[in-house]
Write a structure and sequence with these properties.
Layout: H1 2-29, H2 39-47, H3 53-66, H4 68-78, H5 84-107, H6 114-132, H7 135-140, H8 146-166, H9 175-204, H10 210-238
């Protein structure tokens, strides 16, 4: 029994944690390219006219699944949430925020510098990792309202999505319907990705190593966010 317990502990923390940390590091490394689209999708978006619900559903889902900056923030948001109603509440606040600015930004052609918006999105990842590590309480003696923070950062994430869509200057014919389909696709991709993350986190809660795992993961989230900020601000000043 002792050997079995030791073996199970070895499998649950040293090996799996290294795999997870490597995955998160790779996500941050390639996040700068995460929002790119393949040539076929690019040509479709540049020439599309009329209503195309299914293609925009797919593009939205693919955009979120490969949009590692958005997912890193959401991982931080749900990391310590246990109840389904809490997860639903926070994800809904984020969804409401990014849906508003995505739709309003594109429809009203609100121009925002993509580098600055993506830098703020990187900051949101740093913020949530720092918050999860109780940094605000330890360093400043305050506890920020997480619900308000998630909603506000959701607004910035929505502008990030809007800047990517605006690059293709979509035709007005069918624009609203296609945007709604794209946004729904984003939610589908978000649901699928977060479902997998929740399975891993909830499974790990059963083991004593969860405390070390949570500290390492949220520290890495902050590191990834700082990398994103550095990359985007470099792009801003160089361009």
């Amino acid at each position: 029994m002792i050997k079995h317990a030791q073996r199970r502990s070895y499998l649950t923390y040293p090996n799996l944690s290294k795999i997870l940390l490597c995955c998160l590091t790779l996500m941050a490394t390639f996040s700068a390219f995460a929002h790119g689209v393949d040539d076929d999708t690019k040509q479709f978006l540049l020439n599309v006219t009329g209503v195309h619900i299914v293609p925009f559903l797919y593009i939205g889902a693919d955009h979120m699944v490969t949009g590692y900056d958005h997912l890193l923030f959401l991982v931080g948001v749900i990391f310590f949430l246990r109840k389904n109603k809490d997860i639903l509440l926070y994800v809904s606040l984020f969804t409401l925020g990014h849906s508003l600015t995505l739709l309003l930004g594109v429809i009203n052609n609100i121009q925002v510098n993509a580098y600055l918006i993506d830098a703020i999105i990187g900051f949101s990842v740093v913020y949530k990792g720092f918050d999860n590590l109780a940094g605000f309480q330890r360093w400043f003696g305050i506890n920020p309202n997480t619900k308000i923070a998630v909603f506000i950062f959701g607004l910035f994430h929505g502008f990030g999505l809007a800047t990517k869509i605006q690059e293709f200057q979509l035709k007005q014919d069918g624009l609203i319907e296609n945007l709604l389909a794209f946004n729904l696709g984003v939610e589908i991709g978000q649901f699928l990705a977060l479902g997998l993350v929740l399975l891993v986190i909830n499974a790990w809660r059963k083991y004593a190593s969860f405390k070390q795992f949570s500290t390492a993961t949220n520290t890495l989230l902050m590191s990834c966010g700082l990398m994103l900020i550095g990359f985007q601000m470099t792009g801003f000043f160089l361009n």
